[in-house]
Write a structure and sequence with these properties.
The protein has helices spanning 8-18, 40-46, 62-68, and strands spanning 32-33, 36-37. It has 69 residues and is mainly α. It has a domain at 1-47. A two-stranded antiparallel ribbon has the order 1-2. The relative contact order is 0.08.
């Protein structure tokens, strides 16, 4: 799953909605991947973070990015 947004505030709201974390109510939510229940260990193994800022050089081709970046 990729989550993108136009501002950090909107992304924070989206993650709060997707997460089990709630201050006032206890809710049970499940995450299914390929039809199977995904535990915290699996989620940690497959999760990653990509910064929103472009770290690329616009003049490079895709191949050049893969080689040099």
């Amino acid at each position: 799953m990729g989550v993108m947004g136009d501002s950090p505030e909107n992304l924070t709201l989206a993650w709060k909605d997707l997460s089990v974390y709630r201050k006032k109510k206890t809710q049970t939510r499940y995450l299914m991947l390929n039809g199977r229940l995904a535990g915290a260990d699996l989620i940690a193994r497959i999760s990653g973070f990509v910064p929103q800022e472009d770290l690329s050089i616009e003049d490079l081709t895709v191949d050049e990015h893969m080689e040099f970046m």
